[in-house]
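Researcher: Structure prediction, please.
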Amino acid sequence: MSRKTLIAFAFAAVAAAPFAQAGTLNITFDNIAEQTGEIRLGVYDAAGYDNGDSLTGADVTVDGATVTVSIDGLAPGEYGLKIYHDVDGNGEMRTNPFGMPTEPYAFSNNAKGRFGPPSWDAAKFEVTEDGADQTISIN
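Model: Predicted structure follows.
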């Protein structure tokens, strides 16, 4: 097979391959006790989860015991969420003198950590071309 034929064959194979479509992540927050302020969330991949380097995020106004937000354009892959409910709307998570959060917080999969955030393995979930849904209890 000539080089020209190989290049044409390779190009045809790449051109015929489907491109991965971006998915939509739908997140429903429930069990919201205080219906004020905003829920602030970050979307992370494995590389950014532990160091706090989010890929994207959202702020959602809390106007009921349940609120929903959609994040569009996520490439298929594994993601994790870190969330806190900014009840007083000051843009920062309140903590006690020991650094423990005093405002509600949560993670994807409703994962729980011990003495810190849950591990990536506990929080990660899959977004496909069809998207993904997460229901997270804020408490």
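Model: The first strand starts at residue 23 and ends at 30.
Researcher: Thanks, that helps.
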